[in-house]
């Protein structure tokens, strides 16, 4: 289209030794305090950005990731039909807490055809769920249970007001004023930021989701001298 574009791509595979495992308990990180795990990380990150609209920078990104760890001495208990313990098996590689399979981002910006100082943008973020497990139950760690997917759409508008000419401007005089209005998470998605675990008198553990902020209106003003 006769405008500048750039494509970035990265593929990586990393094998990690002497890893310190950790669990996520709501907003707290609980480290094992032992370098007793090996792990691997593999993924692809891609991004294309440019002026899809002349004079307005926009981009699209896609990331695919997998990361797992093998903790020394980690095992799963086997039971018979009567509930008796018959043995233990090694768990092998399990999902790490930051194992988010897909992460998609879109930022699209536009402006009025005859007035580039008035701009608008749409920001879209999507991520698949993260694995979770209740604390104190190591056998459930790294299971397929996961949080809900993360979804967020932001909408913003901005206007630049020129108050003086660069050549005629005096010292201390205001040059321009940038005014921006943003509506974050405009769809009001209930994104989960973590879980609180509650145990009843019978020893059953229940997970209670903690939600992130929903719709937020943000007004910003930037003065340039």
From TrEMBL:
<protein>
    <recommendedName>
        <fullName>TonB-dependent receptor</fullName>
    </recommendedName>
</protein>
